[in-house]
Amino acid sequence: MVDVNFEEPGYDNKKREPLPPGEYHxxxxxxxxxxxxxxxxxxxxxxxxxxxxxxxRRIWDHLVFAGGALKRVKIAMCAMGYPxxxxxDVTPDMLIGKEVVVTVITExxxxxxxxxxxxxxxxxxxxxxxxxxxDGEEVPF
Length: 141
Known about the structure:
Mean pLDDT: 87
Helix content: 10-25%
Shape: globular
Number of strands: 5
Strand content: 35-45%
Number of helices: 2
Strand order of the largest sheet: 3-2-1-4-5
Largest sheet: 5 strands, antiparallel
Structural class: mainly beta
CATH architecture: Beta Barrel
CATH class: Mainly Beta
Distance between the termini: 52 Å
Low-confidence stretches: 132-141
Order of helices and strands: EEEHHEE
């Protein structure tokens, strides 16, 4: 049994503000295989910021394995060190632990009937943490 008291001093029940738009060095902490609402295979990524003012904050993203979204999967995987001509299975374990630099922006959306601000990783927003930039416009697919 676990004893919980959400009224206890120190419990932070405030809404988290989104991260400021920018680039963040992150590590993929979780990768869950799911099915998108359109029925496509996708991975939900949970990433943790590794340094700076926002250290230990989380960034969430998803990679969809279908159609035009495959270009984004390729950008992300190349940033994680996979070759641009990779062929084969992709499993969540292959992405967990990888470090990349992500570019995030802030967007508004509706969630449970309320407007909210949230972070979004841009379409080409993955770059190698080693300094090599993968420009989404120059990645042939």
